[in-house]
Amino acid sequence: MSQQLENARNLYLRGIRDGEIKEVQDNYMGKSYTQHSTGVKDEKEGFAEFFTDFFKRNPKREIEIVREFEDGNFVFLHVHQNLNDGQAQWVTTDIFRADEAGKIVEHWDVIKAYPAKITGLDPIFGEFELKDLEQTEANKKQVRRFLVEVLQNKEFAKFDEYVAKDLIQHTPAIGQGSQAYQEYLQKTNADYDFVFKVLGCGNYVVAYSKVWLSGRDYAYFDIYRLENGKIVEHWDNKEVIPDKQELTNLGKF
Questions:
Q1: Which of 93, 114, 201, 244 is the most buried (most CB within 10 A)?
Q2: pLDDT digits (tens, 9 = 90+) for 206-247
């Protein structure tokens, strides 16, 4: 495990789960810590202030990192949080940027409630295996093309060039298969205003975007698994972007 991946994991497990704020500040964060998480102030002091109160409100914290990979100096984590014996459960998608020493210096996330009732496939839990590492750049390029041609330019005639017919779908609002995914995007008129970052490792590619959906701007993560150049599995996570006057840091991007 690389130093940056270990530091990102420890920020969650030793920091948020175990409450060891000073350990995180001294060992896993760099000299500065730029924050994009809603409601959390910038720098190490903002992290400490937010989570000191968070620990008081949530004395019981179970955290499971379900998926993880790194791309350059960035780390992606897909996390489930169970607070106070199930009183609250959250799905979190996180990107961490590391400095040359592997210390974490910047953080973006999207947080959404884990559904009380599962009607389709689970929105986060399941198998995870990184494969086809030699296909990382090709898969990232394929997802970028899909994002631009289909999700931004609305060229839905090209949808099947990128998405497998038997797509496995983990988003509760979308049915199984590529047709259901396409119909959802067209019905909701999801507008991918801009794509902030695309990260990948082998058969997994993650896109973090600003999406206009149902009359609101969302910070939106799409997680794709690819086989033979096509998207065969999809998860997402979205969070309403706060109004400017509500921001406590630089914002979601």
A1: 93
A2: 999 999 998 999 999 999 999 999 999 999 999 999 999 999
Q: Is the alpha carbon torsion for 161, 165, 166, 168 positive or negative?
A: positive
Q: Assign domain 133-240 one CATH number from 3.60.15.10, 3.10.450.50, 2.30.40.10, 3.90.1300.10.
A: 3.10.450.50
Q: How many separate helices (H) and strands (E) can be counted in the chain? A: 6, 10
**Centroid of chain to Cα 210:** 13
* Coil, strand or helix at 226: strand
Residues 90-99 as b/e (b if ≥16 CB within 10 A, e otherwise) read bbbbbbbbbb
Considering the entire predicted model, what is its pTM?
0.96
Strand partners, 204: 201, 225
Give CA separation, 141 vs 71, 77, 126, 151, 221, in Å: 14, 21, 26, 14, 17
Q: What is the pLDDT of residues 10-23, one digit of tens each?
A: 999 999 999 999 99
